[in-house]
Amino acid sequence: MIDGMEIGQQALISIISHLLFIGLTFWALQALHFDKLLSANRIFQARLLYIILTIAIGSSVSNFFLDYLHWSRQLQYFFK
User: Fold this and answer.
1) How many CB atoms lie within 10 A of CB 6?
2) Where are the alpha helices (DSSP H) in 1-80?
3) Would residue 36 count as lying in a domain?
4) 65 occurs within a structural domain
5) Hey, how many other C-beta atoms are within 10 angstroms of the C-beta on 13?
6) What keywords does the record list, in alphabetical order (predicted)?
7) 3 pLDDT above the threshold of 60
8) Taking CA 54 as the corner, what is the angle to CA 53 and CA 56, rounded to the nearest 5 degrees?
9) What is the distance between the alpha carbons of residues 14 and 30, in angstroms, rounded to a whole number?
10) Which residues, 6 or more positions from 35, have their beta carbon under 8 angstroms from its beta carbon?
11) Res 2: pLDDT
12) Is pLDDT above 80 for 69?
């Protein structure tokens, strides 16, 4: 059974993981030159797209990482 402390720890790990991977994604996407692909008069839209892409990719990678962590913790039940 999961107690309140464990739920709080999982929440903290999830928040940190999402922020970490969103930050890493933001850093990695700076290597691409999106300005060459977008219209010159659409600066706000380009920045919004950049933020949305960063959040979408970072969250997906974080969810993969958290799922993998969760599944690896559950492997102990396979061997009982």
Assistant:
1) 10
2) 4-29, 43-74
3) yes
4) yes
5) 13
6) Membrane, Transmembrane, Transmembrane helix
7) yes
8) 65
9) 24
10) 46
11) 64
12) yes
- The per-residue pLDDT of the chain, averaged, comes to 89
* φ, ψ at 66 (rounded to 5°): -70, -40
Q: Helix (H, G, I), strand (E, B), or coil: what is residue 1? A: coil
Q: Which two tokens stand for residue 65?
A: 């990482």
The CA-atom distances, in angstroms, between 66 and each of 18, 40, 78 are 9, 39, 19
The SS3 of residue 32 is coil
Q: What tokens appear for 17 in the block? A: 């993981």
- In the chain, what is the greatest distance between 2 CA atoms, to the nearest angstrom? 62
Please indicate, yes or no, if residue 11 is contained in any of the structural domains.
Answer: no
Domain of residue 27, residue span: 20-79
Tokens representing 69 are 């962590």
The C-alpha R_g of the chain, in whole angstroms, comes to 18
Q: Which amino acid is present at 38?
A: L
Number of separate domains in the chain? 1
Look up residue 70 and give its two tokens. Answer: 């969760």
